[in-house]
Structure formats: structure tokens, C-alpha cells
Amino acid sequence: RKKCVEKEGDAAKRWSDKWGFLKTPLEELIGDEKKDAKPKIELPEHMRIRPVTPVEKYIKVLPSPPVPKTTQGFIGWRSAVPGLELEIDHQIRSCKGALCRSL
């Protein structure tokens, strides 16, 4: 026990030599590292970052029809309205053979 107390005392005495730099204020440490600001270079037009375009400009979501009263009515209740269907071509083609038969 006595050796532990002695080691702690020695460590406390040596602490300022090893770790004393941690006591210095941050402003003092950063003050030496301040560099001259570089002049900003104007980027060409093709390399500039464009401003963010809001999603609403590209994606238009129409209001949904009223919520159906039955659970069976939930199946395709939005896509049953002509303006809200998911199929763009209005005809589902499942495979190559179906495409050839339709021609």
C-alpha cells in the first residue's frame, strides 16, 4: 500500500512535465496555426454546384379519393382513379411472348 501511495505522489509530480500542455488555453494553441486566407477562385459554370431543386417541381401527387369503408375496397383504391394509376402504358406486358402476340 505504501508503494502505491509513493507511486501516485511521483506520478503527480511528473504530470506537469508530461501533460502540462493540456492546461494551455485553446486560443493560445490555435493562435499560432492561423494561416493567411487564400483568395477564392471563381469556378467555371460547368463545375459549380447547382442549387437544390424542390421535389415538388418534378413529382406531382394528386389528392387521393376518399378512403373506402371496407377493407376489400383498400385494394387498388388509389390506382382505380384514372389520373392516379401506376401503369404508364395502360397495358401490362408480362414477357417477350406477350409482346410478340400483341404485334
TrEMBL record:
Tree of life domain: Eukaryota
What InterPro entries would the database entry show? C20orf85-like (IPR020339)
Query: What's the protein called, per UniProt?
Result: Uncharacterized protein C20orf85
Q: To which species is this protein native? A: Manacus vitellinus (golden-collared manakin)
